[in-house]
Design brief:
This protein is mostly helical and 148 residues long. Helices cover 76% and strands 0% of the residues. The chain contains five helices and no strands. Helix 3 packs antiparallel against helix 4. The chain is globular.
């Protein structure tokens, strides 16, 4: 039972890290600017993953196989820039909780579409009426968090 829950615990920890990261990135953006903060965040991330791959040798794949990946798999870097920039822009204006809730609503809705249609090579998992209701309730929660 514990091992079955481990992926969800890891996902929850990633969510905690995302909320903290958004706050820290926004604080950096206030000091050095939005695009500048986005650049620094990605530069520090590049240095960290480079150390993990090349110094600690934690990778288990093969970088030489990069050309075998479909073209759309390289859009993640561009999406990462847009995500960091959007978070740095929005969190100081609306707050961490409303911004994170809105991010989650967007993620759940999009994830539902990806699952339902099996996009990007993912397994098809139908998005049910209950999933739609849950997403609408989350959107309502985001709206309530934004109300002052």
């Amino acid at each position: 039972m514990v091992l079955e829950a481990l992926p969800l615990v890891i996902a929850a920890l990633a969510g905690i890290a995302m909320a903290i990261q958004g706050s820290i990135n926004s604080a950096l953006g206030k000091v050095i600017g939005l695009w500048e903060a986005t650049f620094i965040v990605h530069l520090v991330g590049l240095l960290a993953v480079s150390a993990l791959l090349f110094i600690c040798r934690l990778g288990d794949g093969c970088l030489a196989d990069y050309s075998r990946a479909p073209w759309f798999t390289y859009l993640g870097g561009i999406l990462g820039v847009l995500i960091i920039y959007g978070v740095v822009l929005v969190m100081p204006k609306v707050g961490v909780a409303p911004a994170t809730t809105a991010i989650l609503v967007g993620q759940v809705f999009t994830a539902g579409l990806v699952d339902h249609f099996g996009l990007f090579g993912m397994q098809k998992i139908p998005f049910s009426l209950w999933n739609i209701v849950g997403t609408i309730l989350m959107a309502g929660g985001a709206w309530l968090l934004l109300k002052q």
